[in-house]
Each structure stands twice: as structure tokens, then as C-alpha cells.
Write a structure and sequence with these properties.
Layout lengths: L2 E9 L9 E9 L3 E6 L5 H11 L11 E5 L3 E5 L10 H8 L9 H10 L16 H13 L4 E6 L7 H12 L4 E4 L3 H7 L2 E5 L4 E5 L2 H45 L4 H9 L3 H33 L22 E12 L2 E12 L3 E5 L6 H13 L6 E2 L9 H6 E9 L3 E6 L10 H7 L4 H10 L4 H4 L8 H13 L5 E5 L7 H14 L3 E4 L3 H7 L2 E4 L1
Parallel strand pairs: 3-7, 3-8, 5-6, 6-7, 12-17, 12-18, 13-15, 15-16, 16-17
Antiparallel strand pairs: 1-2, 1-4, 8-9, 10-11, 10-14
Helix pairs in contact: 5-6, 7-9, 13-15
């Protein structure tokens, strides 16, 4: 048993007043399978970078932090940055594991590939020709073969299909010594035995997978909310009682002074009676002070509650009602790029209120179906239809190269809002983005605030946002758009668990007509009304 110790760690980026970490201390066992969760922008990737930096010589470190990080092992980071992706995967494996591709050693790589259902031929193909899923599996297999390393795995599931995610969970469950950042609830449950969470005010570790952590958090939040309500009532009662006691004490105190009162006391027994009234006033003043002290203690107790309560306000959506039942239909459609067919026999209808999940393995053509649908809807521009503001995020060359056979019918006058896979094109200020896309900037900011953006973050340039925050901008822009049809292509990449649940609740409440591609099985099963395999 060995521990990675983090003691009194503080860090903020140069030029920023935001503290990412503020005097945090905890430790992690090097044999744990740690799930790492927290809202977007809280510092999960930053923490991994600091761990990596701690293993470098002082003159090679990229970040300045206070506190100490000590570890008996080295760290490796996924995704590994592959320089020159035109090389064979075999060469990259040799770079990661010198000597591992020799005849007597390569069997270890083949064994890991087999566990991930990855063919041996992958080693002999250029890395650039591998799918996202194949790249993820190949790199993880090689990284786990490195001895005496604690693996930092940052969002490995983006672009992975459901089957690949299941395999990844099974694979990681057989390993130990890693920290996994993922917002896929099923994956975290499948392979982790401890959960590290970045909360609003602290970092904590609990034994158990995501579901047990989530259950504990809900229970703790419920207890704190109940205690908070009780203390609010106590504070109100104590305030009222202290005020009443003060009024009574003041009235009694007033009877001790003045010429007329002196005559009354003289007739009623003189100084002795006056002393009695003075003692009564003193006791009532003491009672008021005791009530005020109890009130202050209750306020102090209340201030210790709800600091880590993750509040997710209800989002709103503004779907438009289309005039006919059917919006679009694919009939036995084959899709390709030039002569290459990527999907065939695609048939489905989009009707009002449908929430259609397009499912299938990586590379089966789901995104091509989305692009083709957008392209066909774009034919109705100029009065007959409107394409949502993010269609330009898809490469024009890809859209132009699309070919298809079969029949596609789309309704006229359809207004469509789209969320693309990639958010890397977002740059500049949010106000300029809202103006360019003709979105109400106040509404956009309000939606982002409800998705856990701080006021400070709203002032930053979008290229400085985390990947999850960028994706939230695209989602918020789509939610701010009134449309008949919403088309979302992997909308949850990088999106934190709390926001995923928030979006699920939104869709179930407003019931928009939606076509989407998403590999988070929990999300798909909860919100889809239909699933079509491509």
C-alpha cells in the first residue's frame, strides 16, 4: 500500500483571480481505481496536469503552485499526444514502450488488444487511419503496460460507441492504479472502487463507485436541506422571542425612572419595590441576551450547511409546433462520400414529439445521417425553411462530398436548431457570438448561468473555456432558439453529470422533436422515444 499525498495545495492560473484549488489536502492509494467527478470548469484536468508536473524536475515544471505533491510512482496521462500520426501504430507503441514490439515481447500488446477486442492488424496501420475508438483502445493498452505508473485518464469515452464503452469498463475493472475523469455514469459504476469529487468548497474521497457516491450525496444534501429549514425556523422564532423580551425589559426599566414613578414606588413600599423591579428588568435583559446568543449559534450552524449543494435550476426550451404530423422521412437511403458507402438501408420517419436516438458502432455513419439530413433541410432555404445557426460547424467540404441514393422527404418551412460534435471553432466573446447568431444575449447568459457558469466566466473569451463549457455554449444557443426540430450530434461530450441530468429533465418536461446521436446509455434510455440502428 502506497499513497499519493496532496498537502495544502493552492493554485490559480497566471493573470486570473479565480482560485482553482485553495489549501486542499487529501491522499490517494496507488492501487485504487478512482473515478473523478465534478462540474465543468472546477479543475479536474488542471489537477491531473499538476500531478504530472510534480514528477518533473523543478526547472521543467510548467505550473507554479503552493503546497506539496508527493508520490512513490510516476504519472502517465491519457490522451497521449501522438506526434506525426502518419506513423504506424507499431512505431507509436515502441515509443511508449521501448522494446515492447520485439518478437519476444509483442505478445503482451496482443494480449491487451485482445481484452479490448482490438485486432492485431491495428499495429500495422497508420495511426491516422484508426477510428477514435481504435486510437483510445490502442493507447490505453500501451499505457497500462508501463510499470510503476499511475495512469491519469481524462475523458476516454468521447466519440466511443456504447459497446466500446462497455468493453472499456470491463477492461479498466481488471486494472488498478488510475484516476478516471468521465461523466458516463455507467462506465464509472462498472470500473471504479473510489470516487474523488471536486465540490464547490472542497475536494473529498469516498469509497465506492459513482452510484454509491451519488446516493450518499443526495442523502447528505437532503439532511442539510432539512436541517437548514429547521434552523431558519429556529432563527425566526429566536428573533421574535428576543425582540419581545427586549420590549418587556424596556417597559419594566422605564418604570424605575421619573418623578411620577417615584411617588408610586414610595406609596407601594418605597425602595424595596424599586429594587424588585430593577432585578426583574435585569433578568429580562439577560433572557434577551441569551436568546440572541442562541440565535447567533443557530446562524453559525446554518452557515456551515449547503456549501457543497449542487443546485441545478430548471432550464427552458422553446419548441415550435409543426403544422403536420410528419417532419421528415428517410426511405432505404444509402449514404457515401464519392464512391465509398458509409451507411446503407437507412429508413426512419421523424414525427412531431419523436425523440429519436440514432445508434450504432463507431464509423457506421450516424454523423453522416445527421449531415445528410441537415443538407436536405438546407435545400429549403429562402422562405421554405431555416437551418439552425451551427450548421456551419460541419466542414463544407464534407457536406459537399456527401452523396446518397434512396428517397428523403422533408416538410417545408421547417425551423431547425443543431448542436454539432465539435466546439473547437468557438472563439471570441459570448456577446459577439450571440450577436452573430442572432440570439438574445441576456437569454444565452441566463441559460449558461443555470448550467453553472459564474459571472466571471461569462466575461472570458470562449477559447479559454474548458471543453465542457464550450459544449454548454452550443447547447445553450440551441435551447435559446425556437425550432420545430432539434438535431444534436453527441451533445454530451465533456458535459458534467449534473448538467446531463439537468438536460434530461428539460427534454422530458418540454418534449421537443429531437433527433440525436449520443453514446451515454443512461441518457439514451431515459429520454428517447425511438431508437434506430444505423
Amino acid at each position: 500500500m502506497a499513497f499519493i499525498n496532496i498537502v495544502d495545495l493552492s493554485f490559480s492560473y497566471e493573470g486570473s483571480s479565480d482560485m482553482i484549488f485553495d489549501h486542499v489536502s487529501f491522499r490517494m492509494d496507488t492501487d485504487w481505481r478512482l473515478g473523478f467527478t465534478g462540474r465543468n470548469g472546477r479543475g479536474k484536468t488542471t489537477f491531473m496536469r499538476l500531478l504530472l508536473d510534480s514528477g518533473r524536475r523543478e526547472e521543467e515544471r510548467r505550473f507554479e503552485y503552493s503546497g506539496t505533491i508527493t508520490a512513490p510512482v510516476g504519472f502517465e496521462y491519457f490522451p497521449y499526444e501522438v506526434v506525426n500520426q502518419e506513423r504506424l501504430t507499431l512505431e507509436i507503441a515502441e515509443e511508449l514502450l521501448p522494446g515492447s514490439t520485439e518478437p519476444g515481447e509483442i505478445w503482451k500488446i496482443f494480449r491487451e488488444f485482445s481484452n479490448l477486442e482490438l485486432g492485431e492488424d491495428v499495429l500495422y496501420r497508420p495511426f491516422s487511419t484508426l477510428s477514435y475508438g481504435e486510437r483510445t483502445k490502442a493507447l490505453l493498452a500501451c499505457l497500462f503496460l508501463r510499470e510503476d505508473k499511475f495512469l491519469l485518464i481524462d475523458e476516454p469515452t468521447n466519440h466511443l460507441d456504447m459497446r466500446a464503452r462497455e468493453l472499456l469498463g470491463e477492461y479498466l475493472r481488471k486494472k488498478s492504479g488510475f484516476l478516471l475523469v468521465s461523466h458516463d455514469r455507467r462506465l464509472l459504476d462498472a470500473c471504479t472502487d473510489h470516487t474523488l469529487s471536486i465540490n464547490k468548497t472542497n475536494i473529498e474521497i469516498q469509497k465506492g463507485n459513482f452510484s454509491s457516491w451519488w446516493e450518499n450525496k443526495q442523502r447528505q444534501d437532503a439532511c442539510e436541506l432539512a436541517e437548514n429549514e429547521k434552523l431558519k425556523k429556529d432563527i425566526g422564532r429566536l428573533k421574535a422571542a428576543a425582540r419581545q423580551s427586549g420590549e418587556w425589559a424596556d417597559q419594566v426599566e422605564a418604570t424605575k425612572i421619573g418623578h411620577k414613578n417615584a411617588e408610586k414606588f414610595s406609596k407601594a413600599g418605597g425602595v424595596g419595590n424599586r429594587d424588585y423591579i430593577g432585578e426583574k428588568s435585569r433578568r429580562m435583559q439577560m433572557r434577551r441576551k441569551n436568546l440572541e446568543r442562541r440565535q447567533e449559534r443557530a446562524i453559525e450552524e446554518k452557515s456551515q450547511l449547503l456549501k457543497n449543494l449542487e443546485e441545478t435550476e430548471d432550464l427552458k426550451l422553446f419548441p415550435m409546433e409543426y403544422r403536420t404530423e410528419q417532419l421528415a422521412e428517410f426511405r432505404d437511403v444509402s449514404i457515401g462520400y464519392g464512391e465509398k458507402i458509409v451507411a446503407g438501408g437507412v429508413s426512419f420517419r421523424i414525427c412531431r414529439g419523436d425523440r429519436i436516438a440514432l445508434t450504432g458502432r463507431n464509423g457506421c455513419g450516424k454523423s453522416s445521417v445527421i449531415k445528410l439530413l441537415l443538407s436536405c433541410l438546407g435545400l429549403h432555404a429562402g422562405g421554405e425553411g431555416t437551418i439552425g445557426h451551427e450548421n456551419a460547424a460541419y466542414k463544407e467540404a464534407d457536406m459537399a462530398a456527401l452523396t446518397y441514393r434512396g428517397r428523403i422527404d422533408t416538410g417545408s418551412g421547417l425551423v431547425v436548431s443543431c448542436v454539432p460534435q465539435d466546439a473547437g471553432f468557438l472563439k471570441g466573446k459570448l456577446t459577439d457570438y450571440a450577436k452573430e447568431k442572432e440570439i438574445n444575449p441576456v437569454l444565452l447568459n441566463m441559460l449558461l448561468r443555470k448550467m453553472d457558469f459564474s459571472r466571471t466566466q461569462l466575461e472570458k473569451r470562449m477559447e479559454d473555456f474548458s471543453e465542457g463549457q464550450k459544449k454548454k455554449v452550443l447547447l445553450a444557443a440551441s435551447l435559446a432558439t425556437q425550432a420545430h426540430l432539434y438535431i444534436w450530434d453527441e451533445p454530451l461530450n465533456y458535459i458534467d453529470v449534473f448538467s446531463r441530468m439537468q438536460i434530461e429533465d428539460l427534454i422530458l418536461k418540454y418534449k421537443p422533436t429531437l433527433v440525436f446521436v449520443e453514446h451515454d446509455r443512461e441518457f439514451v434510455e431515459r429520454i428517447s422515444t425511438k431508437q434506430f440502428g444505423i
